[in-house]
Write a structure and sequence with these properties.
Layout lengths: L14 E6 L14 H15 L4 E6 L7 H6 L4 H25 L4 E5 L8 E2 L2 H9 L3 E5 L9 H11 L4 E6 L4 E2 L11 E2 L1 E3 H7 L6 H10 L3 E5 L5 H6 L6 E4 L7
Parallel strand pairs: 1-2, 1-6, 2-5, 3-4, 3-5, 6-10, 9-11
Antiparallel strand pairs: 7-8, 10-11
Length: 251
């Protein structure tokens, strides 16, 4: 008798919000979008979607333009931030194209209205797209200057009632110091929101962390560069760093 194939771990979450930095799209390059990296991310998102998980994404724009860096060199902060928002739209459209080519129905919803390119952000419309099995990409941050895409990710995750906020990075979790500069840096497997704020750990900006803390939205910080990590987090494997309240139980 033929052996029965092992059943994969079922997903622990029904709806997730995945936060990607713009730099994640660069691959090994120093600027712009690397097509191979884009296709790899699209493939992983497709794999997670095939498990029946509803997927929303927020992408930064740092691979094209960083508003904060530009304002540090004298540009008006509001103008620089609006330019950064436009960069996130470009990244969102690029990922939408990669997902659509992989056979996944995708919608880009922008906080800044641009009807020829994408839909305007309407909360109920976003949730309806998710319920219909479409991947939703939230573009243009919150639509306001002085707010980061980390804050936008926290806000959108709560608006759509996501079960978890997944922060994809270039390291395998949160450390007490930069592990690239300090080989003896200590990795945290679990932190509370308050510890992140008190230690000034660079997980997400303080506004984003405070929003998650006030609404008890769990954050998982993990390494995007390891193939399959998005699926592993969705299936509840203990990788990266989990940020919750003390009384919240890990899955």
């Amino acid at each position: 008798m033929a052996e029965t194939a092992p059943i994969a771990n079922p997903p622990r979450f029904k709806r997730i919000l995945l936060k990607l930095s713009g730099e994640a799209l660069m691959g090994s390059g120093g600027f712009g979008i690397d097509p191979a990296t884009l296709e790899g991310i699209a493939s992983e998102v497709t794999e997670v979607r095939s498990l029946g998980v509803e997927v929303a994404l927020v992408i930064g724009g740092g691979n094209i333009f960083r508003g904060l860096a530009a304002s540090a060199h004298g540009m008006d902060r509001a103008s620089a931030d609006y330019m950064g928002m436009l960069a996130t739209v470009m990244n969102s459209l690029a990922l939408q194209d990669a997902l659509e080519r992989a056979g996944v129905n995708t919608r880009v919803l922008s906080a800044i209205e641009m009807q020829e390119l994408c839909e305007p952000y309407i909360r109920r419309r976003a949730m309806r797209h998710l319920e219909k099995g479409r991947v939703v990409i939230f573009a243009a941050g919150t639509g306001n200057p002085y707010f980061t895409t980390d804050t936008a990710a926290s806000l959108r995750a709560m608006e759509i009632h996501a079960d978890v906020l997944m922060k994809a990075t270039k390291v395998d979790g949160v450390y007490d110091r930069d592990p690239k500069k300090h080989p003896d840096a200590t990795k945290f497997h679990r932190l509370t929101y308050l510890e992140v704020l008190q230690r000034n750990l660079q997980v997400m900006d303080s506004t984003a962390i405070s929003l998650c803390r006030d609404n008890k939205l769990a954050i998982v910080v993990f390494d995007l560069r390891v193939r399959g990590n998005i699926r592993r987090v969705v299936q509840g494997e203990s990788i990266g760093t989990l940020v919750t309240d003390e009384e919240q139980r890990p899955w």
